[in-house]
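Please fill in the sequence for the structure shown.

STRUCTURE ENCODING:
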């Protein structure tokens, strides 16, 4: 009997994915010859139905723009995924499809590694699936936050110096500046940042987004999304491997 176990990543325009290399390297290190990890580039979320018909598929990661849309196709959500309203990891077991959110785990590890006592309130830039995981983690850690998006009360047009100065933690959750569009940068009043600020940009490719470069020029401490990405991937691996009954 063929015991190949397939994993992968669903998203749109995702040829640059970190996950494929991460998991392929992991399979080599652990000498797991029966595991494979593929990229499933879907134009529309309903194409995921084709994947579900593959009996060898035991799970997959989910990235932009499907972290919220995938929920309609699942049988069950973990507590965290339900509270967050976004899924980035799916386990398929005995035909049952369960959604998890390991972004929250990865972001929390990043936050606790770099946060200082004066980082008592946050600005979250963006309101997609990744921002929802960040909101959940900040809530969990008792850090009040305000969300800045195109349509929110505080938006990129009306951000003022006082708001920037009051929020020493800034988390950039939009895809603006991701490879290949590395010249792009969110409209943001960088001149009001100081060395008191911690700026976390969830993007990992490039290592230094234009947003991070601009923030660090003003003395802010900056962190990219690489460690979060590694940690969420490790957590996903745990879910796929240790849920097996």
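FILLED IN BY: designer on duty
SEQUENCE:
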């Amino acid at each position: 009997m063929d015991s190949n176990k397939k994993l992968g990543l669903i998203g749109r325009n995702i040829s640059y994915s970190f996950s494929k290399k991460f998991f392929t390297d992991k399979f080599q290190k652990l000498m797991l010859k029966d595991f494979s990890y593929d990229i499933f580039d879907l134009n529309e979320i309903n194409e995921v139905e084709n994947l579900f018909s593959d009996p060898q598929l035991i799970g997959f990661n989910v990235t932009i723009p499907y972290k919220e849309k995938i929920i309609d196709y699942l049988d069950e959500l973990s507590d965290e995924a339900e509270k967050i309203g976004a899924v980035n990891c799916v386990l398929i077991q005995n035909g049952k499809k369960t959604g998890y959110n390991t972004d929250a785990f990865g972001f929390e590890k990043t936050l606790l590694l770099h946060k200082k006592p004066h980082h008592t309130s946050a600005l979250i830039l963006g309101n997609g699936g990744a921002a929802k995981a960040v909101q959940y983690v900040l809530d969990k850690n008792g850090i009040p936050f305000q969300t800045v998006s195109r349509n929110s009360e505080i938006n990129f047009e009306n951000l003022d110096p006082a708001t920037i100065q009051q929020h020493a933690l800034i988390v950039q959750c939009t895809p603006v500046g991701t490879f290949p569009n590395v010249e792009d940068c969110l409209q943001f009043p960088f001149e009001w940042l100081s060395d008191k600020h911690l700026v976390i940009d969830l993007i990992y490719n490039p290592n230094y987004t234009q947003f991070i470069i601009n923030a660090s020029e003003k003395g802010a401490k900056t962190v990219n999304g690489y460690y979060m990405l590694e940690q969420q991937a490790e957590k996903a691996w745990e879910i796929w491997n240790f849920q097996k009954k």
